[in-house]
C-alpha cells in the first residue's frame, strides 16, 4: 500500500513554494508515495510589496500568536497521512501568521495529532526562535517532529539586513548598489539541492515503521546553526514580545496612537540591530573558547532533530 504525504504551506513571493517543489519532486516520482498539496489561503491576501508601516505593524500580532484568519482547508481533516511536511517562513522571529493560523485550527488537531511532521523553513537567516515556538506548538498538538530542513539566504548578514527588507518593501530582489549587495533570497542552486531531502524521504518512508520517531534526514546538512545569532535572536525576541504587548495595549493595528509609538520602536529596533547584533557576535566570538561546551549543547538543541552533520551527502546526489 502506498504511503500518503500531506504538504502544507503558504508562500508570498513563491520562494518557499520553490523549495517545497524541489523537495517534493522525488516523492512525486515515487510509485510508492502519494502526495497531497494543501496551500494555505489567507482570508485576505497580505500585501506585496509591503507598505512600510503595515510591515512593522504586523509584528505584535505575529509574535503574540494572534494571526489573521485563513480559509478552511480543502483536504479532509479526517484523512490519514503517514507524513506531514509543514513548510513555513519566519516573520519577526516567529512562525508567519498564515502557518500560525493553521496551527491553531481544528484541522491541525486532526491532521497533525500523532503524526510524524517534517518542518521546512525558508527565511533570511534568523529561524532559531521561530522553530522553538513551532516545536512547542507541535508538541501541544501531539505531533512528532521528526526532521527540520532550513534554507537561508547565503549572503553576509549585513547585506541581507538591507536586501531582505528592500525586497519585502519594494518587491525588487536586487542586486543593489551595483552588485555590492547581492540579490535577496535563497540561491537557485540551494533550492534545487533541496531535492536530496525528498530523495531521502522517498527511499525510507515506504519501509518505515509508522511508530518510528527517528529522523530521516540526518547527515544531509538539513540545518546549519549560526551560533553568533543565538544571543541576538534571544534579545530581539524578548524585545518583540515586550513591545508587541505594549503596542497591542495601545490599540489595534489601525490605531493612530499605536502607529506613532510603532515609529519610535522602529528607530529603536534599527539602532539595536546595528549595535547589539554585531556586538553580541563579537562577544560570542571572544567568549567562545570559554563556552565551547555550552555553545555545542545549544547548537545541538537548536539543530535537533535532524542535526547539522553532512556526512551522508553523497548518498543522495543533487540533480
Ligand atoms: C513581515 C515579515 C517578517 C520577516 N521576518 C523575518 C525574520 O524574523 N527572520 C528571517 O530570517 N526572515 C524574515 N522574513 C523573511 C521571510 O522569512 C521570507 O524569507 C520571505 O518573506 C519570503 O518568503 P515567501 O515569499 O516564501 O513567503 C520576514 C518577512 C516578512 C514579510
Task: Characterize the structure shown.
- This protein is an alpha/beta fold.
- The strands form two sheets. Strands 2-1-3-6-7 form a five-stranded parallel sheet, with helices on both faces.
- The chain has helices at 15-29, 52-57, 59-63, 97-103, 106-112, 128-140, 157-170, 188-192, 195-204, 230-250, 256-287, 292-303; strands spanning 3-9, 33-39, 83-88, 90-91, 94-95, 116-123, 144-152.
- Helices cover 46% and strands 13% of the residues.
- The protein is built from twelve helices and seven strands.
How would you concisely characterize the structure shown here?
This protein is α/β, with parallel strands linked by helices and 319 residues long.
- Count of domain modules: 2
List the total number of helices. Answer: 12
Rg from C-alpha positions?
20 Å
Work out the helicity level: 40-55%
CATH structural fold name of the largest domain: Rossmann fold
Biggest sheet strand line-up: 2-1-3-6-7
* Rough outline: globular
Write the layout of secondary structure elements.
Layout: E1 3-9, H1 15-29, E2 33-39, H2 52-57, H3 59-63, E3 83-88, E4 90-91, E5 94-95, H4 97-103, H5 106-112, E6 116-123, H6 128-140, E7 144-152, H7 157-170, H8 188-192, H9 195-204, H10 230-250, H11 256-287, H12 292-303
Bound molecules: flavin mononucleotide.
Residues 11-13, 15-16, 55, 58, 89-93, 122-127, 164, 168 line the site of flavin mononucleotide.
Amino acid at each position: 500500500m502506498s504511503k500518503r504525504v500531506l504538504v502544507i504551506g503558504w508562500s508570498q513571493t513563491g520562494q518557499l513554494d520553490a523549495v517545497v517543489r524541489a523537495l517534493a519532486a522525488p516523492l512525486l516520482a515515487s510509485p510508492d508515495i502519494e502526495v497531497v498539496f494543501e496551500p494555505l489561503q489567507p482570508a485576505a491576501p497580505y500585501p506585496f510589496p509591503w507598505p512600510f508601516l503595515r510591515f512593522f505593524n504586523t509584528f505584535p500580532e505575529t509574535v503574540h500568536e494572534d494571526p489573521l484568519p485563513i480559509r478552511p482547508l480543502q483536504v479532509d481533516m479526517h484523512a490519514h497521512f503517514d507524513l506531514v511536511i509543514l513548510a513555513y517562513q519566519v516573520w519577526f522571529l516567529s512562525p508567519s501568521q498564515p502557518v500560525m493560523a493553521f496551527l491553531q485550527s481544528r484541522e491541525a488537531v486532526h491532521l497533525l495529532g500523532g503524526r510524524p511532521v517534517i518542518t521546512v523553513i525558508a527565511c533570511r537567516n534568523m529561524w532559531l526562535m521561530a522553530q522553538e515556538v513551532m516545536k512547542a506548538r507541535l508538541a501541544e498538538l501531539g505531533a512528532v517532529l521528526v526532521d527540520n530542513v532550513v534554507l537561508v539566504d547565503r549572503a553576509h548578514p549585513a547585506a541581507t539586513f538591507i536586501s531582505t527588507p528592500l525586497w519585502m518593501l519594494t518587491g525588487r530582489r536586487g542586486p543593489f548598489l551595483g552588485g555590492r549587495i547581492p540579490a535577496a533570497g535563497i540561491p537557485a542552486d540551494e533550492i534545487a539541492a533541496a531535492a536530496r531531502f525528498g530523495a531521502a524521504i522517498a527511499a525510507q518512508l515506504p519501509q518505515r515503521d509508522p511508530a518510528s520517531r527517528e529522523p530521516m534526514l540526518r547527515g544531509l546538512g538539513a540545518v546549519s546553526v549560526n551560533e553568533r545569532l543565538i544571543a541576538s535572536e534571544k534579545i530581539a525576541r524578548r524585545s518583540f514580545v515586550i513591545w508587541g504587548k505594549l503596542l497591542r495595549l495601545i490599540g489595534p493595528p489601525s490605531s493612530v496612537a499605536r502607529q506613532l509609538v510603532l515609529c519610535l520602536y522602529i528607530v529603536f529596533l534599527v539602532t539595536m540591530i546595528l549595535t547589539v547584533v554585531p556586538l553580541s557576535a563579537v562577544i560570542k566570538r571572544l567568549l567562545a573558547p570559554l563556552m565551547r561546551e555550552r555553545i555545542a549543547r545549544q547548537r545541538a538543541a537548536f539543530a535537533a532533530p535532524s542535526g547539522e552533520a553532512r556526512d551522508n551527502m553523497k548518498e543522495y546526489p543533487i540533480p
